Amino acid sequence: MVSSVIQSLRNCNLRGPLPDLRRIPHLLYLDLSFNQLNGSIPPNKLSENITTIDLSNNLLTGNIPSYFADLPRLQKLSLANNSLDGTVSSSIWQNKTLNGTEKFFLELENNNLTTISGSIDLPPNVTVGLNGNPLCSNITLIQFCGSEAATVTNGSLTTNFSSCPPQGCPPPFEYTVDCFCALPLIVFYRLKSPGFTNFLPYLNGFKDYMTHGLEISFDQLEYDFYWQVGPRLKMDLKFFPPYLNNTSNHTFNESELLRIKSKFTGWLIPDNDTFGPYELIGFNLLGSYQDVIPTRSESQNIRTGVLVGIVIGAIACAVTLSAIVTILILRIKLRDYHAVSKQRHASKISIKIDGVRAFTYGELSFATNNFSISAQVGQGGYGKVYKGVLSDGTVVAIKRAQEGSLQGEKEFLTEISLLSRLHHRNLVSLIGYCDEEGEQMLVYEFMSNGTLRDHLSVTAKDPLTFAMRLKIALGAAKGLMYLHTEADPPIFHRDVKASNILLDSKFSAKVADFGLSRLAPVPDMEGVVPGHVSTVVKGTPGYLDPEYFLTHKLTDKSDVYSLGVVFLELLTGMHPISHGKNIVREVNVAYQSGVIFSIIDGRMGSYPSEHVEKFLTLAMKCCEDEPEARPSMTEVVRELENIWSTMPESDTKRAEFISSDSGKADSHSTPSSSSASASVMKTPFVSGDVSGSDLVSGVIPSIKPR
């Protein structure tokens, strides 16, 4: 532990006093937030190299140690949501020496702090939050506790309209920031994986991001926000029409209302690294807006009329009697069927899983034009994958289980409950599911740039640069690190491969397909945690950890091995197995022969050889035969971040800002044959799952040669 650099034990249910961490001389990052640690903060000074300390959302008491002022590289100190008391020394921020781009954040909200000692002037690039402390009753400290225009109470941002006329606005109209009555468009919205725990420093930044993305003015948006478990940040966004003149009715016209709606439902608001992925929960349409965007029933019942034919002619008595008996039998069976169907439906009504939506079969059938072949974008071991457009215009990917892949209802809903708790910007988000009509379907966000494997193919139209490949590798590693270290309970993916890494419009990587995932081991009765999970071998040839294949013992290092193979694909463009050749063996031979650059994918253009060599060395470490010799996923992320931080700035900026509009569907129509065929190469969730017995028998999936 002495050699550790990063300590992240966030949301691990830790209890007791804080440990003494002064013996870690190279500690750079410490995150013990969202635990149940109690007692005072140890007075012993931490490493002078540390940049981030996050002890928020615990049960800490006592004073804030003075040594925080003597940590020269500290950029963020978060002690919010504890029970700390006494005085805050302004030397914590006054002693900071920051260059033009560096910033310092001090988050002390919701404690019992009573005074500030020293100067209360804030230097440039310093943000201090003290809202929710007794000292905020002092009006001179308004810069630390909010302003007159914006006060924060119970996690909600509200605007003070005390200067507006006292008579108020006739409902549902509300005052705008300019004190005229207008009809707001209310949008329910949620940040699924924000990169912060204190939103105060980002209030105006988010407002600027949202209004810029919607192409409206800054003053047209007001919003409330509420922290939820995750942590996720739910928002009630209120968009107001601009002021035109006194004769205006102060409502959005039809075209502007539909334009704003399509921005949300078509996922046309650009992604932002700070605020992370978001989800659209819905719209609250007030007044005349209900006439412009009529609400639709979530389920559509298709009723078929009964065609009564008049039979002309005489029918023999025996035939007539036979027909009557047949009808009676059918009625009895139909009545029994309806009874069973109603009982099954009633059992489902009581099941509700937070964070995901339960779709009806009819909704998903409508979204895919009755599961048309033109809407199909992939097929794997689980079943077929369709691109669909929901009734509100949201584009989704729908995984439909085939016969033989169906689980029991309890097992299926248990898996949905687990997936609904996973929220990270580098994981594909689960939107909902369907479990009726004998079907089991999962509904995910649609990834417009398809799979990583698509873009490594020789047929790829625009080959990825080295910087883009490194960015994708880092994103995939971060998603897996979340599964290993922050998911509750931790998860081993078990089928990491290039076709399970999807790319959004900015080529940011998101790990997909947890159909084969297994929960990490949990402590036994004596509190001992096994180092592995025993399981039937499943995965994809070429990516399988040799140790896992031989022993059936699945560990976090099994995912590390598979990701190492993906790294080798990124560097060489080769398939894991092709014409009887294994990518790990081929790269090792080239490395030992001193001709490693001869197998680097030439389609990625010029690249910094030193960085390629470091990336290759990391990939080979991940693919070591012995699991103990492989790095952990946290160490993989750290090394990739080090490589990325030393890349030429021109390369990283180009990789960060590149985007693609490919794969976007018309948000107001179901997929047509032309739109679906154009996205066949952008196949989300393609899986080539095989079992261990398939490998033993020599079954290898057909792979197109390079």
UniProtKB/TrEMBL annotation:
It is a single-pass type I membrane protein. Its main location: membrane. GO terms for cellular component: membrane. InterPro entries: Kinase-like_dom_sf, Leu-rich_rpt, LRR_dom_sf, Prot_kinase_dom, Protein_kinase_ATP_BS, Ser/Thr_kinase_AS. It is found in: Membrane. It is an enzyme of class 2 (transferase). It comes from the Eukaryota. One of its GO terms (molecular function) is ATP binding. The keyword Cell wall biogenesis/degradation does not apply. The chain crosses the membrane at residues 306-330. This is non-specific serine/threonine protein kinase.
